[in-house]
Amino acid sequence: MIGNSIASALIQKALDGTWQRQKAIAANIANHETPGYKAVKVSFEEALENEVKRLGTTSMSNGSGNNDPYMSIQNSRIRFLTDQSGSERADGNNVNLESENIDMAKTQIQYQYLTRAMTDFYSRLRYAISEGKR
Fold this sequence. Notes:
Layout: H1 6-30, E1 40-43, H2 45-60, H3 69-74, E2 79-82, H4 97-132
Antiparallel strand pairs: 1-2
Helix pairs in contact: 1-4
């Protein structure tokens, strides 16, 4: 239960979301020549932001609300959205390869940042535990 903090839950959920986004982008790139294929987008940031706001207001209230903020964040939804925008291509495929490659690079950087944040979180926790014994 020690690592089950709001901070670790947020980082874990963001890692899950960016991982799912990487998979969706990879599928989009793999299908960029598939006739009729529609790009898939992954959305999770807004759900996390709303959950943090909700937790902030319920903690300020009279105590009603979710008793386990960690699980509340973990249960926030990662949404997969099919891009229904029109296609400039005759075959109906709407994948923009250049845009997908840019999104892939951006998401990879976000994922690396989040893994570093998680490593730092547990390093600080380990330090607090080990120094607390002295």
